[in-house]
User: Which sequence fits this backbone?
């Protein structure tokens, strides 16, 4: 993906940028430079970790990586990569569950996640708890499809849930972590994540990114992941 060029972006995106105002850290590309340097630095020590867990996940006969189409900057879709943490028939299990269980269906509708998700494998629970499953997204960051910090990447079918508030998602690259992930997560409703992501897009700065990254490290070390 090419770096951002305001004159070459769609008219609606240029309008959003005018609403945001001038932000040197983002507008001059410093955020992108730090993403490139950071992803290269982190990939060196974590590549063996990714390889080991890829081999462990492959033992059930399914793929080690899981790629899903997500909506990125300017509404472009890209393949977001993870280490597979769910069973190979995860989509079928989800459809069956929300059909027969109205409580699970209601939770999925409002939160887009399940408290006791039957699709997650035993190993998957471990790698999700410590965010190991998201390490392959470092390659997405290096390619310019994602950033270390940004709005949560969403799948195309979720766009209607944002009720028109796609401000942060079209202006920013989606992030491996973000403001919602390190904020109070007692309110799990999907719309609350949108509010956090819109706020991040308006207030993005180096100071905020450093704060979010340090807070993410604390969450990872505490084992209080997804």
Assistant:
């Amino acid at each position: 993906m090419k770096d951002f060029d305001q004159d070459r972006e769609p008219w609606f995106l240029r309008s959003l940028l005018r609403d945001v105002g001038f932000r040197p850290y983002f507008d001059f590309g410093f955020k992108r430079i730090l993403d490139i340097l950071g992803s290269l630095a982190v990939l060196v020590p974590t590549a063996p970790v990714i390889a080991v867990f890829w081999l462990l996940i492959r033992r059930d006969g399914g793929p080690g990586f899981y790629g899903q189409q997500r909506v990125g900057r300017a509404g472009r879709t890209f393949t977001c990569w993870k280490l597979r943490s769910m069973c190979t028939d995860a989509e079928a299990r989800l459809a069956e569950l929300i059909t027969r269980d109205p409580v699970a269906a209601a939770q999925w509708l409002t939160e887009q996640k399940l408290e006791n998700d039957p699709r997650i494998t035993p190993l998957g629970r471990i790698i999700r708890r410590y965010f190991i499953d998201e390490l392959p997204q470092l390659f997405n960051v290096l390619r310019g499809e994602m950033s270390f910090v940004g709005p949560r990447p969403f799948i195309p079918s979720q766009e209607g849930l944002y009720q028109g508030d796609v401000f942060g998602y079209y202006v920013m690259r989606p992030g491996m972590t973000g403001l919602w992930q390190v904020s109070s997560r007692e309110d799990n409703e999907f719309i609350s994540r949108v509010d956090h992501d819109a706020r991040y897009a308006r207030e993005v700065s180096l100071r905020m990114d450093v704060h979010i990254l340090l807070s993410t490290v604390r969450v990872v070390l505490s084992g209080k992941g997804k």
